[in-house]
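your task:
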Amino acid sequence: MSLKIDQDHSRFRNIVRGKIRQNLRRYISQGEMIGRKGKDLVSIPIPQIDIPRFTFGEKQKGGVGQGKGDAGDPVGGEQSEEEGAGQGGKPSNDAGDHVLEVDITLEELADILGEELQLPAIENKGKSRIIAAKDRYTGIRRVGPESLRHFKRTYKEALRRSIAGGSYDPGNPVIVPQKEDKRFRSWKEDHEPVANAVIVYMMDVSGSMGDEQKEIVRIESFWIDTWLRRQYQGLESRYIIHDAVAREVDRDTFFKTRESGGTMISSAYRLCAQIIDEHYPSSEWNIYPFHFSDGDNWSMDDTLTCIELMKKEILPKVNMFAYGQVESPYGSGQFVKDLREHFASDERVVTSEIRDRDAVVGSIKEFLGKGK
């Protein structure tokens, strides 16, 4: 019975995964998953999965309960037209839409994202000082939990005992393991360093970056976080906002702040380089700066300063530098062109133009598709 339940549960999970994959691009572009995110789970509305339900009989027929009735009689009894209508509705013979709320882990969600966008596994740049304990099976012993029982070794011991005792019948080879026949896997705990990563998010919060542009950044950063957390056991996130000056903030402030000043992108790049130097040695950390802007900058001189900061202080230390340009009716869109001109042959620099929410999926693919 337990095996059948596990099989049914596995089939249901496969159906759910299929539905999520089918609707993943809509989930991403609308951002409806983000509001349902808990600590380790995301609650997802899955449409078009039929939910088992009672079928009621036709009106004017008796029902079954504690009173009268025979086997096979419809459930529900008589129902008035007003009762059938519900509160504020009209009676109808049409079936309703069935939407099922399903909880899925962030790890499963990341796997589905990787499968759908064909994202490669990240190539770790280095090992951190953080040590993780890992169980490694190294041998066989006579005692242990049933979950670690070694079937083949147990069977061989039982067969050996049966032959030695003269009870083995080749014509009817029934082998029943006894307690002394059982063998179990043994293990030891190894300690090894694990790959660690940090994402440094930077966003332009000047007046030209409106609420819709920030929501696009919020959606994309959620999926970037989800994928990279699946790749690394330890992932830290740092947040920098900037207009003419840059400052580090927490996550909530990052997505809610809006200023009205001008834009000097170099202030964010300078602060990013400082955070990396002070907290994340490149020999021990996989480092991912992500910068989002509408492409407006104060001057060409400041853009050239950004180029120099990237070449000398940022790129030598990072796995990848990602720049996402969110289309805005007020931004010039020039900065992405300047980056592409100066870093056309540098694979560490990945740029993406994000026209609207529908372009988020393609942008994620551009950023994460190389496995850096």
Q: What stands out?
A: Residues 196-368 form a domain with the Rossmann fold fold (CATH 3.40.50.410). The mean pLDDT is 78. The chain has three domains: 1-53+97-118, 131-191, 196-368. The first helix runs from residue 2 to 30.
